[in-house]
């Protein structure tokens, strides 16, 4: 079998994948900032890395998959400006910040489960690793690459650039980056225009703040990933992933922090997913063409003609390579829906297929082509094309126009089980139906517990159950006839 090639953003080329400590692989993916519902751009990234994780495990690697949860210290601007997003959302919804965190974390996990993604091995939170971030900042200061000003600690980019290439990930020189950054005009605490905050002094009204050697404050956005990836994967690990929008600022600053702390490259292979468009235009809330996963599932959006199942959407995403732009349109979604149904129907047909003789079809070549596709930087569109060659054989054999052996049938089943279900992470309607049935049984039990709580006048428990279900994407409606529920 040919080696696995992956595209490394750092070197801007495809490289043979050689883990640092095989068969173990460290994989870190920048997770969601949980102050709002997860958007489709995030979903595409997490589904893409779910595919990557699944295939690495399929090849026999022992993958430690770490995906963080950003639940503190995220300001509205990349240059350490604006309000804290969690505090702002908490004020709007009249909740504590950690209630916001819990609500949207549960909602995110619910969406990921509906897309049939495997949960990460570790899902650390920024608030759970404040001490690690403080210790890392102290090391960076000790090495001379950061300075404190009025309770805020900044990373000194220009000083760092005297020893290391700050723009190595985006292949941009420091002079270019400085030209694209506004002047300080003597009004900023920072020494240099590109300097970024490692620790931010809290205002008196700041809701989420912690003690530190520099006073009460909260961590900058970038330091959390450096601290948590280091803790769980070591100083240098195999793969770091995220959306391409994170390259220029977040991932660039991660590299600088880590090298400024322990003088080594933190990551061997950097991987990035491309952006989403809708009918050819970039997806954004301001353009009115952005929609949430649940809107996609229900069809409750002006741009959608109907709703699409999570598996059909997952299949749709897999039909475009993770490094290519993915364009949403009703036509494309409906074509993918038909393709997914055809793929699943052929699996049903395969279960009843009877051996009829010796075949001239080289099914083993299809299997090898499936591996070749995935070994070429996880090329899922080419993989899917090969799978439809298998579909053609199944349907032709079912129509008695092609003879197949017992071995042929078993090999076709192996191709489905390995690549359709294991690697692509797709599921049949029967499997999703079983999940729905199990959910219905669990919900009936929960509603029964809630009903008993109301009869016992334990309204606090009743309200807690309702609110936690809502945070998980399940709406409970009470009426004279009883309580009903539905997925939002």
CATH architecture of the largest domain: 3-Layer(aba) Sandwich
**How many DSSP helices?**
16
Strand order of the largest sheet: 4-3-11-12
Provide the β-strand percentage band: 15-25%
Report the CATH superfamily of the largest domain. HUPs
What radius of gyration results from the CA coordinates? 25 Å
What is the average per-residue confidence, as pLDDT, rounded to a whole number?
A: 91
Distance between the termini: 45 Å
Q: Low-confidence runs (pLDDT<50, min 5 residues)?
A: none
Largest sheet: 4 strands, parallel
Structural class: alpha/beta
What coarse outline follows from CA principal-axis ratios? Answer: globular
Give me the count of strands.
17
Q: Indicate the percent of residues in helices.
A: 40-55%
Provide the number of structural domains: 3
In CATH, the topology of the largest domain is named Rossmann fold
CATH class of the largest domain: Alpha Beta
Summarize the structure.
With 488 residues, the protein is an alpha/beta fold. It is built from 16 helices and 17 strands. The strands form 6 sheets. A 4-stranded parallel sheet has the order 4-3-11-12, sandwiched between helices.
């Amino acid at each position: 079998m040919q080696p696995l090639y992956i595209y490394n953003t750092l070197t801007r080329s495809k490289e043979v994948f050689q883990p640092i400590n095989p068969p173990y692989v460290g994989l870190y993916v920048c997770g969601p900032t949980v102050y709002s519902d997860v958007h489709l751009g995030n979903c595409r990234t997490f589904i893409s890395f779910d595919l990557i994780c699944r295939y690495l495990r399929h090849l026999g690697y022992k993958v430690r998959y770490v995906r963080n949860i950003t639940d503190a210290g995220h300001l509205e601007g990349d240059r350490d400006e604006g309000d804290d997003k969690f505090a702002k959302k908490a004020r709007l919804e009249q909740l504590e910040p950690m209630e916001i965190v819990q609500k949207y974390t549960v909602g995110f996990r619910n969406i990921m489960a509906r897309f049939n993604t495997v949960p990460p091995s570790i899902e650390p939170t920024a608030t759970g690793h404040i001490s690690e971030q403080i210790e890392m900042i102290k090391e960076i200061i000790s090495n001379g690459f950061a300075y404190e000003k009025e309770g805020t600690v900044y990373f000194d980019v220009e000083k760092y650039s005297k020893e290391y290439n700050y723009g190595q990930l985006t292949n941009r020189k420091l002079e270019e980056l400085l030209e694209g950054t506004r002047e300080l005009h003597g009004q900023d605490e920072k020494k240099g225009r590109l300097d970024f905050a490692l620790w931010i002094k809290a205002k008196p009204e700041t809701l989420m703040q912690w003690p530190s050697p520099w006073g009460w404050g909260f961590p900058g956005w970038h330091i959390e990933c450096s601290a948590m990836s280091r803790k769980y994967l070591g100083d240098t690990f195999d793969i770091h992933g995220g959306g391409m929008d994170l390259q220029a600022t977040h991932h660039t600053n991660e590299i600088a922090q880590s090298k400024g702390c322990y003088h080594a490259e933190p990551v061997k292979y950097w991987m990035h997913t491309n952006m989403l468009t809708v009918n050819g235009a970039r997806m954004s809330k301001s353009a009115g063409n952005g929609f949430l996963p649940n809107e996609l599932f229900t069809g409750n959006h002006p741009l959608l003609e109907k709703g699409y199942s999570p598996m059909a959407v997952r299949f749709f995403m897999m039909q475009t390579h993770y490094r290519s732009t993915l364009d949403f349109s009703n036509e494309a979604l409906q074509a993918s829906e038909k393709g997914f149904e055809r793929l699943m129907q052929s699996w049903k047909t395969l279960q009843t297929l009877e051996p009829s003789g010796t075949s001239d079809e080289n099914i083993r070549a299809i299997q090898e082509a499936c591996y070749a596709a995935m070994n070429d930087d996880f090329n899922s569109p080419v993989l899917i094309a090969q799978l439809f060659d298998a579909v053609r054989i199944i349907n032709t054999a079912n129509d008695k126009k092609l003879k197949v052996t017992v071995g042929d049938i078993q090999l076709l089943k192996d191709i489905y089980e390995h690549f359709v279900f294991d690697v692509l992470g797709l599921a049949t309607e029967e499997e999703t139906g079983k999940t729905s049935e199990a959910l219905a049984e669990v919900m009936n039990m929960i509603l029964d517990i809630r009903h008993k709580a109301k009869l016992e006048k334990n309204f606090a428990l009743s309200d807690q159950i309702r609110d936690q279900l809502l945070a998980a994407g399940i709406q409970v409606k009470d009426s004279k006839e009883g309580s009903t529920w539905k997925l939002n």
